[in-house]
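Friendly challenge for the regulars: who can give me the C-alpha cells for this chain first? No prize, just bragging rights.
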Amino acid sequence: MDTGAWGALRVGGADARAFLQGQLSNDLLSLTRDNSLLAALNTPQGRVVALLRLVERADAIYGLLPASMVATVIERLRKYVLRSKVTLEASTLEVLPLVGIAHSEVHALFEGSPGAATHQQARDVSALHLPGPTTRTLLIGEMRELRALLERAGLQDASWNDWRLAQIEAGEPQIYPATSEHFVAQMLNLDLVEGLSFSKGCYTGQEIIVRTQHLGRIKRRMVRARHSGSAVAPGDKLFDGEVSAGEVVDVAQRADGTTELLAVMSLTHAPGAVHFAGFGPLTELALPYSWSGT
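First reply, four minutes later:
Bragging rights claimed.
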C-alpha cells in the first residue's frame, strides 16, 4: 500500500445522516447518491480533527480520508453516538485514485447515462469524480473488483503522491495525524472549497467557525507553493527570518525533484520571504480560487 493511501469509514444505521449532520461542517441534507460532500470534523473549539469526502452508497454513508485518520475519526465520533441508531466502523472497501483520466472514460465503465452525477455506483463499485485543474476520480470497492474493472478498461490507477499533487493543484486541503487539531476551518480555505455550510443547524465547533466568518478576522490562510528541496512533511514549520510564519498542510513530489505544497500562513508574511530552516524561500503558485480581501 502506498504511504498516504486513503481508506473508508462506514456510517450505517437509521440515524446515520442525522448523526453526521450534528457533527460535521457541511449539510448532510444535500448529500445524495449522485454527489459528494467535503466536510470537517471539529473539536468544540473549532479545530479541524479530520477532513472527510462523503459519499452515499446503497448500504450506508461512507467517509473517505487518509487511512491513517480512520481510527481517530471513529474514536471521536463514538463519543457523541449516545442513543442514536448508528454504527461506525472501518470499511473493508478499498479506495484507488485515478489522475489525469477523463471523467467520460470512467463514466463509460458504469451502466446508464451519468448525467450531472459526480458519484456513480454500479453493483459494488462506485466512482467519485472531483473538480480541479487535473481530473481526479476515486474508485471505491473490493480490490479484486476494482482491479478487474481497470483491466477491462485498460486504465491504470495513480500513485497517492500523484493524487496529492492533483489535490494540491486544486487547493483542497487534507488533514493527517501530524496536523490534526492544528487549524480552524477557514485557515484551510474550507469556506472557499465548499467544505462548510453556514445555513445548516448546529454542529460541533460551529460557534467558533461562524464567529470567525462573520467577524472577518481571518488572519491565516492556506497558500500553494513550490520548494526546491524534498525533505518536507505535513506539520513542518515555516519561518520568515527567525519568526514563525506558517505550517505545512500537504506535500507532493514533482517529477523534476521539487516539492509542491499547501501551507497555512499568517497574512502578514509574503510567501516569497518564507522558508524552511536551512533552505531558500518558497515560490508562490496560483490557487484556482481567491481569498484576497479576507
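The chain has a mean pLDDT of 91. The first strand starts at residue 6 and ends at 12. Your move, everyone else.
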